[in-house]
Amino acid sequence: MTTRTASGREIVRNTRPASQRARSWAWHLTMLAVLAIVLYPLLWVIAASLKGNADIITDTGLWPETVTWEHFRSAFDGLAGIPLWRFFWNSFVIAALSVVGVVASCSMTAYALGRLRFPGRTLMLGIVIATLLLPGQVMLIPQYLIFSEMELTNSYVPLVIGKFLALDAFFVFLYIQFMRGIPRELDQAATIDGAGHFRIFFSILLPLLRPAVITSSIFTFIWSWNDFLGPLIYLYDMEKFPLPRLLQSYSNSEGVTNWGGMMAMTLLSLVPVVLFFLVFQKFLIRGIATSGVKG
Amino acid sequence: MSASPPTAAVPQTGAAGEAGAPPDRGSRGAAKRRSPGVRGGERLAGYTFMIPWLIGTAVLTVGPMAWSLYLSFTDHHLIRGGSWIGFDNYIAMFSDPMFGRTVRVTLMYVALAVPIKLVASLAVAMLLAQKRRGMGFYRAAFYMPSLIAMSVGIALIWKALFSDDGVQDSFMSAFGWEGGGFLGNPSVSILMLVILAVWSFGAPMVIFLAGLMQVPNELYEAADVDGAGKWQKFVRVTLPMLSPVIFFNVLMETVGAFQVFGPAYIIGGEAGAPAWSTLFYTVRIYTLAFTDFRMGYASAYAWMLVLAVGIVTLLMFRAAKQLVFYAGEDK
């Protein structure tokens, strides 16, 4: 769809090269200016975590005069004798479980809602769409009461169980949208060959859903990595904290005196998300564009 | 359901339950020819695939919603328990100074953050919507902040940037600003969160961009032939063609803005420091429920939020009927 628009503009460019080139420069300068503003906070943290001086907060520059690794060393020490890698591991475990749950449960649900016909389907689809807009806060208190009644607080169960039960309506919706692009003739051909719905789902649709699986996995990983409210409510044992809880605790105790350590720790906590983004950005942007726009 | 008239689809399958099926079923030639066994199999498979969602929705969505509605009419305390008190929670809310404060802070945030973020994202999307070298790079770079903007880490960075003598204070002082860092100044502290929202303009931008790419070039060419200027083309072609996407973004961003929690909690804490100026509605719900253990009152708070979001959503859908243009529809 890009090329269609592209060809039209390409012609214009060839007929007016000089003014077009000037406009291209102006365009790049505008974009770089926006980029500089957008990336400033991140560049500032990188600089702040390396600065040797004591008043790093009040230093607006992006270039450290003296470089020190001291802040990173203190960040790796973690908090209260628990090393930083432990919190990374906790975050990773929660995120990985979430990814498995979302992919398995949301793809199943989407297959039923998008491909199969059964009484009540329309109502269920309506509920899925309604929960997209429903404020989660309203379920929070009863959910907490349920999990504490079952003595599951201070465990990861409350944080990931919803992922295994297809409650991430956004991803169900993403899979349904994606499945629409897969020709029904494939299902029908397989039916004629004698395949049941489970065979069709596992051997035909799931492999074809690969891009949607990748998109939903990355989003789930990142959202779970960033999630703060869940761990704040359910976890109270520091050994089990994921990174957002660590950062919060750190900022309440050490952070007051050790800004450099906190900035380094903050930076380290963002690295996996940024790395994921750099590797998978095409899938992310395509995913958000297709699920967002009706089409 | 069973009262629906016995129309075309029924005789061939003969299944009694058919009557409750969606109407489009009967008109499908292929479906008609299938045997009852296959149909029954499809139904069974449908419910089987729905099992996780059905359990989840019953136990973690619909059940809790009903329960929290009930709780909102009680004075339930996490430790002491409680009993039915009718509408007392809802009445108490209106004489609770904290309620007014949190509503004001949240509405102020929604009213500032959503329009500024969306205008910024549309503006940058329009700048980006051309086939130039580096477009993919800029798109990715602008999008990236929206993935981390709501994290605890970025909220902590924001606290550093907006503290007294921090980056924002030093920069603005150069222009004669004397209000110090936003972090400690109650009259502007909300702007920290607004700026944070605007910083994450990349997500709606990508959606706008995808929408812009689908506007047929012929429309712009036709407008050129008619002698339309840039502004006219924007108002007469771009905006109407983009209106479904604009509607989607306005809706999602507004609903999302009402529910911001993490950054507000990290920046302002449970008290919404300084002077309640960052005390968001969701933070108040959290504090009532999990610090004060007043589950009943907190549930009433939560239901007011559902009501507010519901009303806003409804109004938006109603407005969309008049304002949103779907290509291919008769005018």
List keywords for this structure.
A: about 300 residues, mainly alpha, 2 domains, B: about 325 residues, MetI-like fold, globular, disordered N terminus
What would you say this structure looks like, in words?
The complex is a heterodimer of chains A (295) and B (331). In chain A, 75% of the residues lie in helices and 0% in strands. Chain A is an all-alpha fold. Chain A folds into 2 domains: 2-68, no CATH class; 82-292, Orthogonal Bundle (MetI-like fold), CATH 1.10.3720. The longest helix of chain A has 34 residues, at 17-50. The two termini of chain A are 13 Å apart. With 331 residues, chain B is mainly alpha-helical. Chain B has one domain (91-323): MetI-like fold. In chain B, helix 5 packs parallel to helix 10 and helix 5 packs across helix 11 (202-213). Chain B is globular, with a radius of gyration of 26 Å. At the A-B interface, helix 1, helix 2, helix 4, helix 5 and helix 6 of A face helix 3, helix 5, helix 6, helix 7 and helix 8 of B.
